Amino acid sequence: CIDKFELSAPNTNLQLVVDGFISDAPGPYTVKLSRSRKLVDFTPFSTVSAQAVTIIDNLGNAEILKEIDAGIYQTNATGIRGVIGREYFVRIETRDGKTYESIPEKIKPAGQIDSIYYNFEQYNPESGPTQYRFRVFMDARGEAENENLFLWKLIGTYKVITSPKLHFIRDGELIIPDPRPCSGYIWNRKTLTLDNVKPCECCECWASLVPTSPRVSNQEIVVNGNFKKIDVGIIPVEFWPFWDKTMVNVEQISISKKAFDYWKTIQDQKAGATGLFQPAIGKATSNIFLKNGNEEVQGLFYAGAISKKILFLTAKELPLGPGIIPPPPGLGPGLPLKPGDPPPNTFIIRESCIFAFAHSTTQKPIDWN
Asked: Which of 40, 47, 88, 179 has the fewest CB neighbours in a 10 Å radius?
């Protein structure tokens, strides 16, 4: 028989959730606002539009962020920028008259990433064919007089091409051309032709792989003040990341003890969730509070300096050759494609690249070459 189990969980419904960051790297910087929900609440994600979101430093410099999408606030690319030695906090003024602030975070030096490198791996999932990936490692060091509390991130970025001018709609059995406005084409009903009126604004994008969970530094793996062979994540061997190349960006971010404890708890929770008998890890404590009140807030606004190193992975780095690259999704095996070849006519993405690929942008990354 099966008995119903009632899970007793804290009521965190409608708490403000903040996700924000500033660094000494060029902006813009982003602050995201949302509302928490109950574990059993399956309603759509709830964003928060505030009256004002402001990043402020301890010298009185401040910038009011612009809302670029629902609940997403961003600085100007040439606006406020983090400086090592200064402290930063965020102030959030909501439309119901409440003011929230974060505890000031001081930016400390980020140390140095000395090298990044990788191992090629193959593995067999429980179902499906053999899969391949690159596991990325780094060697790094901190600063002699600092705590050397770091957050390590791997960001994989790859180029994609789509054909939004070929988008269409169906009207019964008819297929009617319906090019996306950003494609630069219009459907001329008189001549029944696609006419080019301006350059395409959404045919070429740079998309990001699903990010590996950030890791925090562990003093137990320090060798003579250096961090050796840190596993920072994986790059899967898939069609689009190896159609052209993948830019592997590894970052070492200096963080405060408060931010370190927060991310360490998140890391431990993710690791514990993979085991049946996971330990009681505790709650990730926010550094954001309601002024003149005791309302609990979730999330974090933190500040840090960044050291980074970049490498590019292409099909040339595949020890088994480009033949192991899977075909585009939806196509069968044995497709005669070489890296860099355009996708075949049977796999044309008739959509804006922004909509077709999650976590994508039409802005070419600064370090892309």
From this structure: 40
Q: Name the residue with higher pLDDT: 99 or 336.
A: 99
Q: Which residues of 307-340 are buried (b: 16+ CB within 10 A; e: fewer)?
A: bbbbbebebebbeeeeebbbbbeeeeeebebeee
Q: Angle at the Cα of 229 (from 223 to 235), degrees rounded to 5?
A: 160
Distance from the Cα of residue 351 to its chain's centroid: 22
3-class secondary structure, 122: strand
DSSP 8-state symbol, 42 = -
DSSP-derived pairing of the beta strands 16-23 and 298-304: parallel
Query: How do residues 300-355 score in pLDDT, each as one tens digit?
Result: 999 999 999 999 999 999 999 999 998 876 544 433 445 555 555 446 788 999 99
Three-class DSSP category at 86: coil
User: Nearest-CA neighbor of 149 among 312, 267, 56, 35?
Assistant: 267
CA-nearest of 245, 241, 243 to 344 is: 243
Q: How far apart are CA 361 and CA 363, in angstroms?
A: 5
Look at residues 312, 306, 307 and name the one whose alpha carbon lies nearest to residue 113. Answer: 307
